[in-house]
Write a structure and sequence with these properties.
Layout: E1 2-6, H1 10-22, E2 26-30, H2 33-42, E3 47-51, H3 59-68, E4 75-80, H4 84-93, E5 97-101, H5 105-117, E6 127-130, E7 133-136, E8 141-144, E9 147-149, H6 153-164, H7 172-179, H8 188-208, E10 216-220, E11 224-228
Parallel strand pairs: 1-2, 1-3, 3-4, 4-5
Antiparallel strand pairs: 6-7, 7-8, 8-9, 10-11
The structure holds calcium ion.
The site of calcium ion has 5 residues, from loops.
């Protein structure tokens, strides 16, 4: 696996490169946005890790240019802690996932493995399927085993986020940021209530189905939730 890391903080870049190489990745480093973009477009990397704040050209612009060039490479963005709007803007620009700084190296590895496993978002159609679950991202509708789910706005957003990260444990903080765009003002209670509503609808659709398929939201105690599809 060949990675490009676009990061101007030399110490962090060197640390990440060493760690990733110990894990068997081959890592190129670019120290600014312009150089990074040129390298990303010139080479067939398996994934890009792009810092938001970069000299010459910011990370979001690099992502936009890479996507505009038709590249479907998985992209992980690094954002500063608290820059919630950056995270949303990064995903809108075409990044597949983000990591708030500071992060644990193991967490970066886990995100990277997940990104390399799943097809990049840009390759996905408006309608995509995860197990027995079908989502129409344009109409914001979902069906399970052919049974249409009657979802509230946030229930749909939550389900789509789960479906984009199937079988991965997602913390409440990450859910708050990705689904509500805000980790600070969304209470755990709001998240739990939304999950509970979505869970009931999934169970309801499956009990109505003649051939029930195992799609369920599991609680991982002390960590968060995961959409189990297998
Ligand atoms: Ca930076």
């Amino acid at each position: 696996m060949w990675l490009l890391l676009i990061e101007d903080e030399t110490r962090l870049a060197t640390f990440l490169k060493m760690g990733l190489e110990e894990e068997g990745y081959i890592v190129d480093i670019a120290g600014d946005g312009a150089e990074g973009e040129a390298m990303a477009l010139a080479n067939a990397y398996d994934a890009l890790i792009i810092d938001w704040r970069l000299p010459q050209q910011d990370g979001k612009t690099v992502v936009e240019h890479v996507r505009a060039a038709g590249r479907e490479v998985p992209i992980l963005m690094l954002t500063a802690l608290g820059d919630v709007e950056h995270r949303v803007a990064g995903l809108d620009a075409g990044a597949d996932d983000y990591m708030p700084k500071p992060f644990k190296f193991e967490e970066l590895l886990a995100r990277l493995r997940a990104l390399l496993r799943r097809p990049p978002l840009t390759m996905q159609e408006d309608v995509f399927q995860v197990g027995a679950l079908e989502l129409d991202t344009k109409r914001r509708q979902a069906a399970l085993g052919g049974t249409r789910l009657d979802l509230r706005t946030k229930e749909y957003a939550l389900l789509e986020d789960f479906a984009r990260h199937p079988n991965e444990v997602v913390s409440r903080t990450v859910i708050a940021e990705r689904v509500w765009g805000d980790a600070f003002y969304v209470t755990d209670n709001v998240i739990d209530v939304t999950i509970s509503g979505l869970r009931q609808k999934l169970v309801g659709a499956q009990s109505a189905s003649p051939a029930p398929q195992a799609v369920r939201i599991e609680t991982v105690r002390g960590v968060g939730y995961r959409l189990a599809t297998e």
